[in-house]
Amino acid sequence: MRLPPGVTSKDFSDALKQFAEAVGKDWVFSSDDDVALYRDSYTPFWHEEEEPIPSAAVAPNTVEQVQQVVRIANTYKIPLWTISTGKNLAYGGSAPQLSGSVVLDLKRMDRILEVNERNHYALVEPGVSYFDLYQYIHDRGLKVWIDPPDPGWGSLVGNALERGCGFTPMHDHFDAHCGMEVVLANGDIVRTGMGALPNSKTWQQYKYGFGPYVDGIFSQSNFGVVTKMGFWLYPEPEAYFSGNVTVPKRDDVHALVEIFAHLTHSGVVQGTTSVIDMPSFAPPDPQLAALRLSGDTKALEDYLAQKGLGYWSLDLPFYGPAKVVAAQWEYSKEKFSSIPGVRFREVESHRFPLDAEQLAKVRDPVPLGVPSLGVFMNGGPRGHGHMDFSPTLPMTGEAVLEAHAVLDKAYRDLGSPTDAPPGVPVFAFFPRALVILYWIPIEHDVEKNKRSRAIFRGLVKTAAERGWGEYRTHTAFMNDVMDVYSFNNHALRRLHETMKDALDPQGILAPGKNGIWPKHLRKEKA
Amino acid sequence: MRLPPGVTSKDFSDALKQFAEAVGKDWVFSSDDDVALYRDSYTPFWHEEEEPIPSAAVAPNTVEQVQQVVRIANTYKIPLWTISTGKNLAYGGSAPQLSGSVVLDLKRMDRILEVNERNHYALVEPGVSYFDLYQYIHDRGLKVWIDPPDPGWGSLVGNALERGCGFTPMHDHFDAHCGMEVVLANGDIVRTGMGALPNSKTWQQYKYGFGPYVDGIFSQSNFGVVTKMGFWLYPEPEAYFSGNVTVPKRDDVHALVEIFAHLTHSGVVQGTTSVIDMPSFAPPDPQLAALRLSGDTKALEDYLAQKGLGYWSLDLPFYGPAKVVAAQWEYSKEKFSSIPGVRFREVESHRFPLDAEQLAKVRDPVPLGVPSLGVFMNGGPRGHGHMDFSPTLPMTGEAVLEAHAVLDKAYRDLGSPTDAPPGVPVFAFFPRALVILYWIPIEHDVEKNKRSRAIFRGLVKTAAERGWGEYRTHTAFMNDVMDVYSFNNHALRRLHETMKDALDPQGILAPGKNGIWPKHLRKEKA
Predict the structure, then answer these.
(1) Is the Cβ of B489 closer than 8 Å to some Cβ of chain A?
(2) Nearest residue of chain A to residue B164 (CA atoms)
(3) Domain B239-352+363-472: top CATH class
(4) What is the CATH number of domain A9-105?
(5) Digit-coded pLDDT (tens) for B78-114
(6) Is A496 on the interface with B (CB under 8 A)?
(7) Where does chain A hold its CATH 3.40.462.10 domain(s)?
(8) Of B191, B160, B181, residue with least CA distance to B226
């Protein structure tokens, strides 16, 4: 049996006994086989000693049981690594940052506590997946949408706390939350926002409450265990329409992104989209690949034009009343018409609700608020998984071009200098910034993984030098990323550490999460 | 000369000397005349000993000077009360919570550091007022809007930190901020969000940064001194249109609010509005007043109908491309048409930019992003000011009716049992909740003010019993309001206090702000 660092075998075994008393013996897992299920299926440390492996897992069913687990952990100084459904794939899955941590698995806390159709919100526990909530709403015929990410088996709470994104107008998941219940490291239960008012009527309707608005400190953090969370839902819209815009020249990206920024900041476009470069996303074609490698932009533009493709492509999603959506598309076309050679195409158009047959025909249901696992079937890299390098960029064409150049170089450094690099989608997941998702494949090959990790670390630094920072990262790189957020000699990290020491003096909650180590491990680990 | 509590005359005089060395002797104020300017002009403690009066004021010009002031305050344990422009009227103005505090006046820090027209944001210091930023943008002809509250002489930073609101689609001012610079109680400077990345390209474009998102803890708080803050601006829209909806029956409020909630949660309506009850907001009329007092709803409805008025009135504001705005109004009318007897009226319609002459004709420029002091000329209570009782309510008709009943009773308790109560606007300032602003007048009469304060305190409790909590309050009532946010035996306050003790162990920053007292004053004051 593995042990948490610094914990004796006797103490650990006593702690496991007490966990079992708290949550039931069927819900404490310590056999190798059981514990193996909590390893990161796509770890970049495959076959290496460094792979962080939990020592055990404990799965409470209620908030009172979470309190007990936290108190026991404090008694024996057991590090806990909290997961909701454990699907944080590409970012570490269900595995801890610190080897030997006990996974605090909240999957049994899967209650949908309220769905309010009139005021469009839900209150859920961490074990509730997007599929669960969708099913609940669908079964009752409620006229509200959830906002699933790609894929939909993860937890609403987990995804929002990691500040993940979806596609509908509620795509910024942390922003769309309203009210939390949190178990602190000392076992105290706090309700945030209006939840601090007993008998509150607006816990899921007004975010801030009174006094300091604390919710943010529980995201991407190890300051507490979130046990309930409210989410704003989107009223089922009358219609969805998506229109495609292509522009012919490489340098058109400047105008394309600038007009898009104006539209989205104005509220004319409210969903998520991505800026796609056709040289890498067009159907595979040897001539195109050769032209890309040649670096002859003019020839590439001409070739794309001859194939009827643009150089850049952007789908604009519109949600709302049919006549509003139509007017928004019309206006968007007017704005983009200032770019010579721009072309428009209608992509998809729906009126809601869709019946099962209509839904089955939809290319991708996720932007229509319907969770799916389709992402595993198309477009994703296969086999052993990947790590997401995901920096945020300013919403400008310059940044898009610069990012492509940086990532093309990284691709060559990864060891495929003769191929054209794969495409890098540039997402408009967040309201005012772009996010790149650059997939670095994981192999069952120690040397390749070592090189990939070195390149990832190099990318973090290269991006930081350009003023771009990751919005989220794999557990393997949390220290590296936090290191570059170094203004005033790491003042933000000092602030995080001050709060950590005050809120969790024994450092039992998720040591190392997002680069925050408890005092006793700080020197060794950071 | 007044002294801060627990500070010797010698220490205080040494501290003032050091403040003068740090900021220049012209910027330390300690004469009675100077200090009097920092009193709350509309204090509810007029002529009473309890009125909190500062001992001095210090006005730094740079963030380095703020650091020095904070360090000096730590040396001598001087309580500092930070103000930006000091216009937090109805909530305490520029006066501290704790008598004898030194006002840390940031008015000299009035630099507009950046306005980015392409990505629609600004970075400003606390002394920048809405007028200042408007003028800056106007002088350069930039195509971005600010979102002023009523009135416009206050600070963007101060208003956002108090979680104030305006009228355009950027009306939730805290939500519209992006990135902060904060001086902590120990003098350390932290930049939040992407500002923690040196050379960041997205400080004003991506909010969360990496790791715990801490910005919220600096709002309505005493955990730091915010010295810079970014704000998202609204791209100048093509058009503004407002349409009025009236419905004839008292009970129509249920459908009216439900449809409004659907429209605003769908993003069809994006600005601020208010639900107005015509019995109290119609032009003064003795017969109407008599009917209100009679409690005969049917007679009241008939009378209003006969006068061509509805029972409830709602202006819907629309911002954006002209054709989108027109479609949004059309759709809204369709939705409200399910209410029998509903009537629609076009109120205002503009295309931007407006020239000076057009602007001069506008009824109220504030919803068009133009700051004003017009609120002091119309509609506001005169004379000695008022305190705002401002609870948040769920977005339902039931809540509106219940709130009216509660506040009518409070009006009678205030001592005017024979008049019809004044109107109580119910604002949709925040995305998913309603906010009432109930003005309780302040008099130059000790007994009346004592009664008003008792009634205010009673209202806080009455509201809490109904599940409504204040979103913000006057310094005089901060303890009372925080007291009702009492879930789990005041767990949220315990969390605030744990953070306060860690971040400001000597308790020098704004003791008492929002009910958070430093350790050494906690028992005595709370």
Answers:
(1) no
(2) A208
(3) alpha beta
(4) 3.30.43.10
(5) 999 999 998 888 888 999 999 999 999 999 999 999 9
(6) yes
(7) 239-352+363-472
(8) B181
